[in-house]
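Hi V.,

You were right to ask for the full record rather than a summary. Here it is.
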Amino acid sequence: MIYNGEVYNFKELTVKYNIQPRTSSDSEIILEAFAQKGVECINDFNGMFALAIWDTQDKKLFVIRDRFGVKPVVYYLKGNDFAFASELKALLKLPVEKKINPAALQDYLFLEYIPDAKCILQDFYKLPKGHYLVADNGKVSVKPYYQFIEKIVQRPLAPKKEDDALNEFEDLLGSAVKYRQISDVPIGAFLSGGTDSSLICALFQKQNTNPVNTFTIGFDVAGYDESGYASQVAGILKTNHSETHLSDKSSIEIADRIVDHYDEPFAAPSTIPSYLVCNVARKKATVAMSGDGGDELFMGYGYYDLYRKVKKIYRMDAGIGRHLIKAILSMKGGEKYGRASRLFNLPSKDMLAHLWSEQQYMFSEKEIRSLLNVSDTDLSIKDSWRKVDAMDLSDFEKISLFDIEQYLAYNLLYKMDIASMANSLEVRNPYLDYRLMEYSFNLPQDFKIKDGTAKYLMKKLLERYLPKELVYRRKWGFPAPLGDWMGRELSYLLDKWLAPGLIRSQGIFNEKVVARFVNEFKAGKKYHDKRVWSLIFFQMWYAKYIDGNGN
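Predicted structure:
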């Protein structure tokens, strides 16, 4: 067996499978359970894991990925050639052709990441979350064993009292936090001061008599630093808090080296603070808890209401009014009006997918076609959205499910696994306990957004631990001021990686279109920063992993 991850409930499994353990390791229990029940045993596992087990009796290889895709698995398959690994960079050592997958590149430019089973290179694949792979007698098949979408209860939901939901949620989250403390190495938790991390730290500290270790980083840039809130939360909870302030210089030094760790194009600017907070945490702990998943479960993103408003306008207007509004906003100039004008130019079909892309500052389909010199686009995200959109759910529930199925699995978890492993830190996610995920999604919508308050039930629970002024405050993200940096200290990246001669020689992007985005960014259109950064990141990735001559 090759094993990466943790099965938290392995002690309960020793009882269920009547195992007499000879060690204190969950690895032993996994193998014993597999010997008894075969691959079906994974339905009993509560944890995060990438497993490869060779069945010596049946001569079959099983490669398994956890329910929500916390731990990665990638593989190469062409003809009779098959190989697998935790990271793409390991497979890139194979003496095989490395050819860009056009569909994956389009997804990247639209989303900032590459979703589902796709990989940036042809004949390379990701094993999807909740799936296992079987290699048997020269044949490879991929099968699902867990589909979150199948765990959704038929609507309308049975009524539930708020106090009952609050207590049940606290019990489940408390159990998830307790499971994730099982460790023989130092453990701590990330604390941003926001709802998700504060609630985990509150329960973590409640379950321990000694102060638990918490970590936060602050940026010396106005509008990006919430470390003061984290410090207040830590003081009230009485944790052993570490706060590290990062100058522009320390963050910028990471920007052009981050590609060393991300072996696929990945344009999320939060890769930088994620890497840095893991680096800080590793100095005091080997394991850290994270709040990933809270926003997706409890509708914490601002674009939920924006989608409803834009959708309403599109339904009321045949197009003439939208074009007029777009023209007026465009003439006003400035980043705010420039971005707003783009909202009135979205295709009415699959609007949520397009709105998501726009909210992430990524390229529109039209821009992608001009960038790549293609007449059509093939975006897999549309099929994912249509599957969700056809379900008997409210608009907000559909977006929540879409975020869980896509953004959480193939963006946030990928980002954090790479950032943490690069620093030899193991990150655990209490909100991704499958019991908690299934329970929370099937709560009535009023427990998630109520009277304009997002993450309502989480905040009501947090009131038991923190004063209201810390609970009900403006939401912050976890970004990096890339636009500012690329306009100053990192401006050399534009000249180096997006130079017309380089773009022309590669033959991937339209050199004139790239130049237009670069020139508009330099002229002050800062909302192009993410688009420009995504192109830079691709170029750095291409030089390192394909050309092989990256610094």
